[in-house]
Amino acid sequence: MIAKRVIFRGRVQGVGFRYAVKNLARSFDVCGWVSNLPDGTVELQVTGEPGEVNGFIREIVEESSVAHHLKSHFVEIIPPLTGVNGFRIIRS
Q1: What is the pTM of this model?
Q2: Which amino acids are annotated catalytic?
Q3: Residue 62: which domain range?
């Protein structure tokens, strides 16, 4: 199991970005959450097997319906998430 934190920059708030990410998560065996941040970015924290986590992030960045809204993204490895079931949107 691995976990990653991703910060997405661009036109990522007010365009359904979090909902698209949540829907996309259904296609992968991952758990975690996505949330708007006060600075206009979106944060993703996701955990799962390396292939699933990396495939999920790659799909968001390269193939998703909201990929064209991204200007950049930053990925960091974090400790595996505990006590997280499923994938959800955190309201901020």
Answers
A1: 0.93
A2: 18, 36
A3: 2-81
